[in-house]
Amino acid sequence: MNTPSIEQSEEEYFMVNYLICLVDQVVVSLNKRFEQFQQYEVVFGFLFTFDKLKSLDHATLESCFNNFEHALKHNKKLDIDGRELYVEISCLMKK
């Protein structure tokens, strides 16, 4: 059984075969980046601005540094000590 062929202009052919695929890839890529930045905000967001850092109470700030430590931890190796960094930042904020 033969299916009827549909005539497409060059512009329609380009749109269907290239442009729509390209736009789809861009949308997927942007969504992935947005999700990554949301995760960065959860872990590092408290460090983005000094005003944000100053606005946090001590319990929240300590919790943020503990999460920060956990995010940078690999197996049992630590890149930072969250408690130590919390104490240092707290001292700097008092000045």
- Largest sheet, if any? none
Mean pLDDT value = 87
Secondary-structure element string: HHHH
Q: What class, by secondary structure content? A: mainly alpha
Helix content: over 70%
Number of strands: 0
Principal-axes geometry comes out as: elongated
Please state the CA-atom Rg, rounded to the nearest Å. Answer: 25 Å
What ranges have pLDDT less than 50 throughout 5 or more consecutive residues?
A: none
Question: What percent strand?
Answer: under 5%
Distance between the termini: 83 Å
Q: What is the overall number of helices?
A: 4
Describe the protein in words.
With 95 residues, the chain is an all-alpha fold. The chain has a domain at 34-94. Helix content is 72%, strand content 0%. The chain has helices at 10-44, 50-55, 58-71, 82-94. Helix 3 crosses helix 4. The longest helix has 35 residues, at 10-44.
Task: Please describe the topology of this protein.
Blueprint: H1 10-44, H2 50-55, H3 58-71, H4 82-94
Helix pairs in contact: 3-4
Short description:
By secondary structure, this protein is mainly α. The chain has helices spanning 10-44, 50-55, 58-71, 82-94. Helix 3 packs across helix 4.
What descriptive keywords fit this protein?
single chain; mainly alpha; 95 residues
